Amino acid sequence: MVDESERERAKSAFADPTQYLRNNSYITLRAQAVRRMVPATSAKSILDLGCGDGRISIPLVGDADELLLVDASKGMLELAVQHVPAAMVDRVHFECRDIATFEPTRQFDLVLCIGLLAHVPNPGSLLELISRCVAPTGCALVQFTDNSCLLGRASNWLGAVLRRLFHPGTHTLTRMTIDDVLSDMAKHGFRMTRSYRYVFLPGVQRLPPPVTHAVVQLAGRKPIAKYGGEVIAAFSR
Q1: DSSP 16
Q2: Which of 25, 162, 211, 226 is the most buried (most CB within 10 A)?
Q3: 138 has pLDDT over 60
Q4: Adjacency order of strands within the sheet including 230-236
Q5: What is the distance, to the nearest Å, from the Cα of residue 154 to the centroid of all Cα atoms in its chain?
C-alpha cells in the first residue's frame, strides 16, 4: 500500500526548488552523461518525467525535435520555462502533474526519468509507466541508486543521516538495486543496452561552489566513477 503521507512529503520537498538546486553540480554531471548516452537519431520526441528545471532535457532539443516536461513542482516548471530558448518555445510543452496521475496520450522516441525514481513510493509503477511511454523503436534513460553496491548503500545511509539532522520531517527515499530495475523493465519487454555509473557524495553542496564542482566532476570520471552507486541506464525493446 502506498503511504500517501510520504508522497505528500516528497512533493513538498520540491515545492520550493531553491534547496535542491543550490550549488547542485550533479545536475550538470547528469546532463553531460545523458547527452553522451542519447542515441544519435533524426527528429525525435522527448518526454522528461520529473524534469526539474529542465537543464537535462532542454539542451537535447534539436531543430526538429519536441519536448514534454512533466513535474509536480510548479516552481521547477517556472524555472524550466526560463531555460527554453525563444526559437524552441513552440516545441517545448509543460505539464504540472504528480507523476502518479500522469497518463500519456502518445509515445515518445526518448523518455527520461532522472532523479525521480527514489522519490516515489512505488518505483515499479513508475517503471511500468515509462515502458508505456516509449515508442516501439525508442529508448528510456533511467537514473537510480543501486543499493546492492557498497557506495550506493553508503550514500543512502549518509544521506538519511544528513536529512534527519538538517531537514527533519522530509520523505524517506525509496531504495532499490540494479537487479530490481532490470527485472521490472524486463517484465515490460525492455533490456538494458548501456549504463553509466558515478559516485554521489551527500552534503557536497555545502562546500564552496568551485570545490563542489571539482569534486563532482571527479566523482564522475574513471576510475572512480565505475565504483559508484549512482546509475544511469539506457533501455530499449
Answers
A1: S
A2: 25
A3: yes
A4: 92-96, 66-71, 45-49, 108-113, 134-145, 230-236, 191-198
A5: 20
Rounded-to-integer distance, Cα 153 and Cα 145, Å: 8
Residue 99 backbone phi and psi in degrees, to 5: -60, -25
Contact 231, 178 (CB under 8 A): yes
Burial of residue 90 (CB within 10 Å: 0-12, 13-18, 19+) is exposed
CA distance 102 to 70: 9
Q: Convert the pLDDT of each residue in 74-119 to its tens digit.
A: 999 999 999 999 999 999 999 999 999 999 999 999 999 999 999 9
Cβ-Cβ contacts under 8 Å for 69 (sequence gap 6 or more): 48, 51, 54, 57, 58, 77, 80, 92, 93, 94, 95
| Domain 4-236 class in CATH | alpha beta
The Cα–Cα gap between 10 and 121 comes to 9
Find how far residue 172's CA is from the centre of its chain.
Answer: 17
Structural domain boundaries in the chain: 4-236
HSE, side-chain direction, 13 A CA sphere, residue 6: 12
5, three cell numbers: 503521507
Size (the chain), residues: 237
Cell digits for 26? 550533479
